[in-house]
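Lab notebook, page 48
Experiment: co-folding of the full assembly
Goal: obtain a model of how the components sit together before planning crosslinking
Operator: M.T.
Materials (sequences as entered):
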Amino acid sequence: MRHENPVAEYLDSLSRALSFDPMLSRRVCDEVADHLHESIASAASHTDLVHQNRDVERAAIGRFGSPWEIAGQYAAASLGRQAKAAGFAIFLSVLCIFGTMKYRIAWYRATHWVIGSHYAAIMTVIVPIDRYAFLAALLLGFAGLFYSRMLPPLGGFDPPCCKMLRRRAAVSAVATLAFIASVASDTAMTAGRLANNAWSVSIVAPVGSVLVEVVLAVYLILCMRRLFGRFTSAAATLLNAQD
Amino acid sequence: MLKGHLDAVLLSVLEAGPAHGYAIIEAIRLRSDGTFDLPEGTIYPALHRLEGLGLLASKWETADSGRRRRIYSLTRLGVKTLRKRRDLWARFSSAIGSMLEGDA
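Observation: model returned without errors.
Model output:
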């Protein structure tokens, strides 16, 4: 977007450079706008060249520094924080589906709901998938949290930092895939029981618990999509600007 | 050279009282007699980092001009950290001073 006003143009560039963290972008742009206006007012009060207002504005922007460099100083910490939050969300989701699984098993025992014998063959495949996918999600979720704690504080947004963040994000992505596999197999097993038993209002209990798992899986997919989108956009704009 | 000491410089400026970004930059320029004329944008990531560490607190206020302004102030942890950084700097500068002066 082209602006007649250099300050508005600068703020627009800064906002685009900080697009990896919209909340931070709003805060920084508000602070920078105040700073630039004060800097311009102060410079203008020391000069008689009122007709050269644009030059005063450009000089203030020049003293402030490149928007890409400033955004680069925020990127590592912000993306690191977002990756850590995603890792924490995965870990909590895994604990939550552990609870819903235990709840369903207790409910099946109490109501004597069993899987039909004609589903037995397919269950020999689904049950191990469920078990190992859940274990993988739990271990990878834990590994992601542990990895985040072990890493040194991130400095500038440079290629080594990108590599570290990419590793963190990859662990979270694999944990999310394992989580999805576990939820899919839980859904299939619940469907197997539903098909074999008479339906009543009480099916709300197992179906509701599976729905909770599906909602968590969708939430994690959206989290990962957002994390990778922001990471890719930051890497593309900020690393290219440094070259 | 200032980069490694920017945190301590920012803490020491805010020891005098709460201030916003532009006032902090001006104070650094004045107190260093213009020696530290760093790119103004560099202090904001540092201020946000120090806030994240709990050394600074900040809040929005409305300036006389009507614009929203973020005001930073030292927290108790910030005061303690500044004291430690000062002690460290006093020992470091005295040691370097002795080294550079030599036996003369």
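Interpretation: Residues 39 and 63 of chain A are 9 Å apart (CA to CA).
Next step: discuss with group before ordering constructs.
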